[in-house]
Write a structure and sequence with these properties.
two-stranded antiparallel sheet; 2 helices; about 15% helix; about 20% strand
């Protein structure tokens, strides 16, 4: 579910025409990522809702013990990055 791309389910051309792939052309993993399909016969519109990737990854991380505190899983992750600029030398001759 976390690796499914929209292009696994739909395709479009340069003109912006969108087409849902035939079910035989959609992989089993992409099929499992589909939460709901809603159609409107009057307008011909198709709405495809996929399962939330972030929530799926969070659940997998929690089950794998990768989250330090499971109670804080709704909070965003904070990553500290320290950048040190290279030393410069003034070469005057």
């Amino acid at each position: 579910m976390a690796n499914t791309k929209l292009s696994d389910i739909m395709e479009w051309d340069e003109a912006g025409n969108v087409k849902v792939k035939a079910s035989k052309d959609i992989s089993d993993t992409a099929m499992q990522a589909i939460k709901r399909i809603k159609t409107n016969p009057k307008t011909g519109e198709i709405e495809i809702e996929l399962w939330d990737k972030v929530q799926t990854l969070r659940l997998l991380a929690k089950a794998s013990g990768l989250l330090d505190n499971p109670d804080e899983s709704d909070k965003p992750s904070v990553i500290g990055i320290n950048v040190k600029a290279p030393e410069t030398f003034d070469n005057e001759e």
